Amino acid sequence: MQYVDESLSDDQWICGQRFTIADAYLFTVLRWAYGVKLNMDGLTHIESYMQRVAKRPTVAAALKAEGLN
């Protein structure tokens, strides 16, 4: 997780400046990580990333529709 956190320190999205399918997948995997209580302490870039992705209108709508918000 430290590697992912460091990767997000330079860019807004995992592959640079544009949201891609990689971000949608990473968001899903990270939600699973939080769900199984993986230690995410100190991973501030991941925390910010998760908030950015969750605020995207389509992501927010999907989370709401699935009861995951």
UniProtKB/TrEMBL annotation:
PROSITE patterns given in the database record: GST_CTER (PS50405)
Domain of life according to the entry: Bacteria
Annotated transmembrane regions: none
Enzyme Commission identifier(s): 2.5.1.18
Enzyme class: transferase
Keywords: Transferase
Molecular function GO labels: glutathione transferase activity
UniProt-listed PANTHER family: GLUTATHIONE S-TRANSFERASE GSTA (PTHR44051:SF8), GLUTATHIONE S-TRANSFERASE-RELATED (PTHR44051)
Protein's name according to its UniProt entry: Glutathione S-transferase
Gene name, Swiss-Prot/TrEMBL: gst_2
